[in-house]
């Protein structure tokens, strides 16, 4: 009941209570940098997309009895999220800047202004923009290749730690079950 109330409160603030709710939550502001879920929450909270990176920030739940292994897992997830956030914020900013410069230079070469007579921004056709996209991807190929390599490394580490945590929890549960049956 309390979890449902907390989920509704976060969705009203523009975020969601967990990964299951993130796809249906609002993408308008709310869960900004100062936002914190209520102390009784036992789930990760997912906020609205960041305006620079377009990634949804996660506020990770920290259990009171978090083990050293669980802390390593959470910290690896937080580190991966921060790294991913930085990369995409920088990449998207570079993309927008270069796109604007490309459009400006093509319009200038055609003898056109950036805005038409009605004040609307002048645009290029799909074929002209395809040239930009192809060039941008070619120019950033190595950067994306390194990003993918690092992303896989980080995710392998996270998956490995998740497996360890699951194994420790399963063994703990089996010991508890054995103790319960023995009494």
UniProtKB/TrEMBL annotation:
It is found in: Mitochondrion inner membrane. It is a peripheral membrane protein. Residues 15-26 have a biased composition (Low complexity). This is Cytochrome c oxidase assembly factor 8. One of its GO terms (biological process) is intrinsic apoptotic signaling pathway. The gene is LOC116490345. It comes from the Eukaryota. PANTHER family: APOPTOGENIC PROTEIN 1, MITOCHONDRIAL, CYTOCHROME C OXIDASE ASSEMBLY FACTOR 8. InterPro entries: COA8. GO terms for cellular component: mitochondrial inner membrane. Belongs to the COA8 family. Residues 15-48 are annotated as: Disordered. The keyword Electron transport does not apply. Its main location: mitochondrion. Transmembrane segments: none annotated. It comes from Aythya fuligula (Tufted duck). Keywords: Membrane, Mitochondrion, Mitochondrion inner membrane, Transit peptide.
């Amino acid at each position: 009941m309390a979890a449902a109330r907390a989920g509704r409160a976060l969705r009203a603030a523009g975020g969601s209570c967990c990964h299951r709710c993130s796809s249906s939550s609002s993408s308008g502001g709310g869960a900004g940098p100062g936002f914190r879920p209520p102390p009784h929450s036992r789930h990760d909270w997912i906020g609205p997309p960041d305006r620079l990176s377009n990634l949804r920030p996660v506020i990770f739940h920290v259990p009171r009895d978090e083990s050293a292994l669980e802390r390593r897992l959470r910290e690896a997830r937080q580190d991966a999220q921060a790294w991913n956030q930085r990369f995409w914020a920088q990449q998207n900013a570079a993309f927008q800047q270069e796109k604007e410069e490309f459009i400006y230079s093509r319009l200038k070469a055609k003898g056109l202004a950036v805005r038409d007579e009605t004040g609307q921004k002048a645009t290029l056709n799909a074929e002209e923009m395809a040239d930009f996209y192809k060039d941008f991807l070619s120019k950033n190929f190595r950067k994306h290749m390194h990003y993918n390599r690092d992303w896989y490394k980080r995710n392998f580490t996270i998956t490995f730690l998740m497996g360890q945590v699951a194994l420790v929890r399963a063994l703990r549960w089996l010991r508890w079950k054995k103790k319960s049956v023995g009494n």
